C-alpha cells in the first residue's frame, strides 16, 4: 500500500500515497501539533511547532532541524515554514498556503509560496492521501522540485506511515 506517485499537472505538483489506516487517523496526523512533530520533515530531521491555529485564517509556524550527523553539511541546519489555513473540511480536506520563512515568521520573498490542497479519501483497507501543491508559475514549481521536495515529502510520508499503519 505504500506506493508513492508524483506527477505535474500544469503548475501543480501532485503527490499520492495510500496508507493502511483509517481516514480519520491520517487526517488527525495532519491536524494536531503533537502528531506533526512526530513525523513532519524528512528522515533525520526534527520538527518543532511554534504556532498552530487549525482553523481558516489560522497560522502554522514551524522549524525543521537536521539532527542526523550522517547528513553532512545539513546537520544542524534549520528550515522554517509558515502556513495559513484557508479551508478545513474535517477528515476530508485541508487547504493552506505554504511558504519558507524565518524564525520570526517573516516569509522569504526569494522562495516560492504555494497553495496546498490535501485530500483524504477512503479506499479499501485504508486511506488515499492526495496532495496538490499549486505554484504561480512553472519556474517556481521547478525550483521547489530541484530543492528535493518530492524526495523530502516521500520521506515524510514514510515516517507518517510508520505511525498510522502500526
From TrEMBL:
Residues 20-164 form the Activator of Hsp90 ATPase homologue 1/2-like C-terminal domain. It holds the Pfam family AHSA1. Gene3D superfamilies: 3.30.530.20. InterPro entries: ASHA1/2-like_C, START-like_dom_sf. CDD domains: SRPBCC_CalC_Aha1-like. Belongs to the AHA1 family. This is SRPBCC domain-containing protein. It comes from Exiguobacterium mexicanum.
Amino acid at each position: 500500500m505504500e506506493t508513492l506517485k508524483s506527477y505535474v499537472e500544469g503548475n501543480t505538483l501532485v503527490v499520492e500515497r495510500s496508507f493502511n489506516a483509517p481516514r480519520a487517523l491520517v487526517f488527525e496526523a495532519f491536524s494536531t501539533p503533537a502528531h506533526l512533530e512526530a513525523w513532519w520533515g524528512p528522515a533525520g530531521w526534527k520538527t518543532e511547532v511554534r504556532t498552530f491555529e487549525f482553523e481558516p485564517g489560522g497560522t502554522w509556524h514551524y522549524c525543521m532541524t537536521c539532527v542526523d550527523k550522517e547528513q553532512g553539511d545539513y546537520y544542524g541546519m534549520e528550515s522554517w515554514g509558515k502556513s495559513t489555513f484557508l479551508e478545513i473540511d474535517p477528515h476530508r480536506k485541508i487547504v493552506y498556503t505554504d511558504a519558507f520563512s524565518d524564525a520570526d515568521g517573516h516569509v522569504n520573498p526569494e522562495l516560492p509560496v504555494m497553495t496546498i490542497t490535501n485530500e483524504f479519501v477512503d479506499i479499501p483497507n485504508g486511506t488515499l492521501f492526495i496532495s496538490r501543491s499549486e505554484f504561480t508559475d512553472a519556474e517556481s514549481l521547478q525550483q521547489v522540485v530541484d530543492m528535493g521536495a518530492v524526495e523530502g515529502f516521500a520521506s515524510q510520508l514514510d515516517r507518517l506511515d510508520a505511525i498510522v499503519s502500526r
